Amino acid sequence: MIINIVAGGPDELLPDLGQYNDRCIWAGVDRGVFTLLEAGIAPGFAFGDFDSVKPWQMAEIEGRVKDLKRFKPEKDATDMELALDWALSLKPKKVRLFGATGGRIDHMLANIQLLVRPLLENLETIVEIIDSKNIVWATGPGVGKKISLLNDMKYISFVPASASVTGLTLDGFKYPLKDMFVPFASTLCISNELTGKSGTFSFTEGILLVVRSKD
């Protein structure tokens, strides 16, 4: 099972949502619910305080979404986190987050941090942030993790999401590494590229954000 969640980030950073309409469950967060409706996709679920939605948009949302979970603006978690909590409770194979970048940087940083949640909770679910220029996900230690060439996203970056990453090895990359210690806030592994159709990365401790980007 795959769950797609669309938040209210800038429309110009959204990819074509239709290409991700692959037997998945759709959910909207705040203004992202209306974004889905405008794209011709009727979400089964909606989450938010809807403080960024106009009254006529809210009326349409209420008329077209069956499961609407409305929260007060004064709460201890963002609408996106509450939606992700719901998604993770279903134990899907993957959760894709759209509309989670651009706009307010505090929300964007919080959304990126949410990628680590499954690892902290020992879940097998992969959570990705996808926009028109990037795909980002978090991963834990392992050996020989394969990553394949995407013609429109040639850049691959590895960003520590923990205090450090130990034993990072990159094979099949333009800039290979062997058993490298990478501390938090290092830019060592930004903008690498594959030399062939695929490569592998391995590390022994820590958490990495993997970022695939277009030019």
From TrEMBL:
Protein name: Thiamine diphosphokinase
Transferase among keywords: yes
Top enzyme category: transferase
Gene3D superfamilies: Thiamin pyrophosphokinase, catalytic domain
Keyword match Nucleotide-binding: yes
InterPro entries: Thi_PPkinase (IPR006282), Thiamin_PyroPKinase_B1-bd (IPR007373), TPK (IPR053149), TPK_B1-bd_sf (IPR036371), TPK_catalytic (IPR007371), TPK_catalytic_sf (IPR036759)
Domain Thiamin pyrophosphokinase thiamin-binding per the UniProt entry, residue ranges: 144-209
PANTHER family attached to this UniProt entry: THIAMINE PYROPHOSPHOKINASE (PTHR41299)
EC number(s) from the headed UniProt entry: 2.7.6.2
Signal peptide: none
UniProtKB keywords: ATP-binding, Kinase, Nucleotide-binding, Transferase
Taxonomic source organism: Mesobacillus zeae
Superkingdom: Bacteria
GO molecular function: ATP binding; kinase activity; thiamine binding; thiamine diphosphokinase activity
A biological process term (GO) from this entry: thiamine metabolic process
